[in-house]
Structures are given as C-alpha cells and as structure tokens.
Amino acid sequence: MPTAECMQDSSPASHTAIWDTEAETLPTPQRQALQLERLQALVARIGQVPFYRSHFLRHDISPARIRTLDDLHRLPFTTKEDLRRHHPFGFLTVPRSDVARIHGSSGTTGTPTFVAYTKKDLTLWADLCARFLVAGGLQPQHTVQVAFGYGLFTGGFGLHYGIERVGAAIIPAAAGNTRRQLTIMRELNPEVLICTPSYALTIADGARELGIDPRSLPIRFGHFGGEPWTEDLRLEIEQQLDIQAFNNYGLSEVIGPGVSGECSERTGMHIQDDHFLVECLDSETLEPVPEGEPGELVITSLTREAMPLLRYRTRDIARLYRDPCPCGRTSLRMSRVTGRSDDMLIIRGVNLFPSQIEEALLRVEGTTAHYLIEVDRPGTPGRSMDELTVKVEIHREMFSDRMDRMQALRERIGSEIHAIAGIRARVELVEPRSLERFVGKAKRVIDRRNLNDGPKAP
Ligand code: DLL
C-alpha cells in the first residue's frame, strides 16, 4: 500500500507529500510505456463488449494493431447516448457476480446511467482519491467533513473511501441540512470540508444567518468539485471561509471523483494518467486542439475492470498542460473545466457559458455568487429574439432607495457581462437569499426557449 511521506507542518500550502511516489512521479518515457501496455491489454479485454466488438471487426482492430499511443485514434468514441442505448449493463466486461457496487451518473442532462465496479475497481478508486487528497494537503491526523450526497452519486462514497485510505477521520455528514452541518463543524472541529463549491458558499451564508462569522469556523482547507466553478469563485470561498480551496474533477462514467485534482501549486489538476488517457479534442471535428487550447476532454479508462470505456466523450471543456509541475508529479494536467459543450447557450448567435456570467458578476463589488440565468424567446416562432436575463443577489447594504444607485449597479454588471461574454443582458438585482440554494450541483440556467424552432447548442 502506498504511504504518504507527511511533513510536520500541516498547512496545505506548504504540503509536499505524495501518496504514491512511484506512480505519480514516473518519468514520461516509462509513463508512456505503461500507458501503451495498459491500452493494449484493454483492447484485448474490451473486444467482448458487443458495442466495441462490431467496431473492431469493421475496422480490423486487434491488440496487435495498437503499436503506439497514437493508435488510440483508431478506436471508437463512446457517448452518453451509447451508454443509454445499452442500459443498464451492456458495457460490462465481467460477470454480474463480480460486480461489487453500482453507482449512477447524476443525470446532469437526461436520464441517469449506471456504473459498475468490481472490488479491485473500488480499491483503485480509493487510491486515486487518496492521491489528490494528499496532494491538496490531507494528512492522517485531520478530520474531514464530507458534505456530498451519499447514494448513487459518486461524490460521497468516492471521497469517503479515499479519506479512509489516507487514514484521516471522516464525518459522513452528507449533503444538506446546513444548520446541522454548522453544528457538527463547531462541535467536532474538522479541518477539512468536502462538497460542491456552491455548497461551500451556502454553508458560509448559513453561518452568517446564525450570527456566526464563517471565518471563525474550524475548516482550514477544502476539496471542492462535482460542478464547474471559476477562479473568482475560488477567491470568494477562500475569503468567506478563510480557507484554501482545492479543485478536483471526475465523472461517474469513468470512475467518479479521482480523475484529477490539484496539488499545492494549484496550477492545474494532475490527471491520474497512468489510469486514464485524456485527449483534448475539437467537439466538431474531433481532431486534437493545439496544445494549451480549450477543447472537449475525451477519456479512456485504462484499468477499470467492470466497465472500462474507450474514448468517452465527456462534453467537458478544458485545456491540457504538459509542462512540468514544481511539485514533482509528472502527469499531464488539466485546467479547470470552463463549461460543458452541452451547457453552452447560443443566444442571438453568441456562444455563452454560465461560467462567463459568474466571472462577470464576481468582478462587480456588491454582488454575490448567487445568480440565475434565464433565457426566453417571446413572440411568434421565426420572428422573435432571444432574451437573456441575469438575476443576481446583491449584498443587503447595496440596496438603496435611490433609483439612480440601483440603476448604476445594474449598468456596471451589464457592461461587465458584455465585456466578458460579448452579449447584452437584462440585469435584475434581487434580495439576499431570494434565489434557490443548492446542496449538490447548482442549477444556474432556465432556458424557456423552444429550441426546435431556432439555433441550437451542438
Ligand atoms: O460529479 C464526480 C465528482 C464528484 C467529481 C465529486 C468531483 C467531486 P457526475 O455526477 O457523473 O460525477 O458528474 C460529472 O460533473 O462531467 C463535469 O461536467 C462536472 N464536474 C465534476 N467535477 C468538476 C470540476 C461527479 N471540478 C460531471 N469542475 C463532469 C467542473 C466538474 N466540473
């Protein structure tokens, strides 16, 4: 079992421990050799899945024809639609009796799909979570409050067993009941919080409502993931809770959390690329984008036993970095996810990601990170224009009887949105706590257009 070399100083910023030194610092040539060996073994194994077998037969693919990592491009893509078509277990590569656990994707878009794990998959998953948790400062002496949902969602159980693997104490608080979260936090003094970034803000809000200064809470750092968030939101969480906030990424189809996560350098998330081959492709041409450019992440899970996937189209947009990280880990890194290609709104012909609105709002003093984007298309089909409304909560002290002040604030927000996203929006200032709060993934867009009669997101 890998062991983290822990430092005396437990501040995450100065933390340099590595959970699995051999795997995480493997020099590039050995890493690539390992990836190739694992890819060949995967192609040999995965040919039993009917979906892949028919493609392999048509394109004359066999393990012997995978000679270099570039041959990955010969392999077929797998989409969410394919998983749905072969629901629930058409992609299983082990007998049902070997399945040790089943989780489900959150169904961000459409019906959820199931994901199966063998015992070995569960051990691997715990180890991969341990890698990013340790990279972001977790040590065995810490206590961690997990405020992710425990259930079909992979967040709760995935992180839970990762923390257990590191040897830290777990408070499985699960998502929701913010008052109780705060009581637990004040009684048990956890140093670490794990949840979605939006729930971290909800916890800070909840504390203020109870007259507690969120900065006085015992939390010193947090691992947040499960939904897109901006760098400005990171700063907001860090300031409000007086903590360090680390990003981690994953998706259930591939394993859950544990695909990648930040180290103390926080210059991108280290991809566990001895287990996941990640490509960054243009969503339309499906060709690789130039190094460092944004594109859709496409992931091959090399070592999953129960349900490995070839070239899974995540729809998540991010950049890849290959330059060395000062932390000593040698993996590929990815930027934060700026949106999903299927979350992209096209409004009056302009592409808009919700994260751009978040970025704009957090640049204007007096606004909060609680917002809702509404898109309408009033009028008759074919003769109507899209309308974009952004509702944003502002701090109580910003509310004023003076119409001119409120109008000036609306205008500042509107021009920031225009500067960042190139689109005009109607801005509505709403009272603190009037918009819905989320305990899991935040839902920030209501699109009321009937998109069958006009431009569509791809
Ligand atoms: O959200 C797995 C996870 C749980 C990751 C907890 C990290 C922490 P799903 O429910 O299948 O799995 O949703 C996966 O969530 O394709 C992204 O669109 C989004 N996502 C996950 N982590 C991040 C992140 C889990 N750090 C989908 N930044 C993914 C941006 C994220 N988006």
TrEMBL record:
Write down the EC number: 6.2.1.30
UniProt key word Nucleotide-binding: yes
Q: Which domain of life is it from?
A: Bacteria
- Pfam families noted in UniProt: AMP-binding, AMP-binding_C_2
Q: In which pathway does it act?
A: Aromatic compound metabolism; phenylacetate degradation
Give every AMP-dependent synthetase/ligase domain span.
94-300
Keywords of this entry: Ligase, Nucleotide-binding, Phosphopantetheine, Phosphoprotein
Q: Which GO terms describe its molecular function?
A: nucleotide binding; phenylacetate-CoA ligase activity
| Known catalytic reactions | 2-phenylacetate + ATP + CoA = phenylacetyl-CoA + AMP + diphosphate
InterPro entries the UniProt entry points to: Adenylate-forming_Reductase, AMP-bd_C_sf, AMP-dep_Lig_C, AMP-dep_synth/lig_dom, ANL_N_sf, PA_CoA_ligase
One biological process GO term for this chain? phenylacetate catabolic process
Assembly with partners or alone: Monomer.
Which family, according to the similarity comment?
A: Belongs to the phenylacetyl-CoA ligase family.
What is the protein named?
A: Phenylacetate-coenzyme A ligase
Species this chain originates from: Thiorhodovibrio frisius
